[in-house]
């Protein structure tokens, strides 16, 4: 009981009505956008440290050549950057496809857009190296 009273005092002190203290609250659209932009800012920083050619060479050396793809819009069609669509269709059964996240139909802001562009460039360069190996299977 003392904790609830203390919590109520704190919440009232910062302008949150006590009636809402015990009720779950969904984040607002603005809060979601801020959270997503922060997450994509961090992901972009990590992605910029990666070298797609080295990562592809490592996958190939391990005997696990795969390609990176993403779902186009809300369809179940997978696009594979840097690989000819016809060639991919012919070889997709022997070239495993890892579907990348963050490529849906919602863009949260400038950092998310920048991340998507960087991810597509990374995937294109990665796929050009790995598809050449896995398509020979």
Secondary structure elements and pairings:
Elements: H1 2-13, H2 29-47, H3 52-61, E1 67-71, E2 78-79, H4 85-91, E3 97-99, H5 110-134
Parallel strand pairs: 1-3
Antiparallel strand pairs: 1-2
Can you offer a commentary on this structure?
Keywords: Signal. Residues 1-21 form the signal peptide. The chain has a three-stranded mixed β-sheet. It is built from five helices and three strands, in the order αααββαβα. α2 (29-47) packs across α5 and α3 (52-61) runs parallel beside α5. 53% of the residues lie in helices and 7% in strands. β1 and β2 (78-79) form a beta hairpin. The chain has a domain at 53-135. The protein has helices spanning 2-13, 29-47, 52-61, 85-91, 110-134; strands at residues 67-71, 78-79, 97-99. The chain has 137 residues and is mostly helical. The longest helix has 25 residues, at 110-134.
Q: Strands of the largest sheet, in order across it?
A: 2-1-3
**Which range does the strand content fall in?**
5-15%
Helix proportion range: 40-55%
Which spans of ≥5 residues are poorly predicted at pLDDT below 50?
1-12
Coarse morphology? elongated
How would you state the average pLDDT, rounded? 85
What Rg do the Cα atoms give? 22 Å
Q: Number of DSSP helices?
A: 5
Please tally the β strands and state the result.
Answer: 3
How would a crystallographer describe the biggest sheet? Answer: 3 strands, mixed
How far is the first residue's CA from the last residue's CA?
A: 68 Å
Category from helices, strands and their pairing: mainly alpha
Quaternary structure: single chain
H/E topology pattern: HHHEEHEH
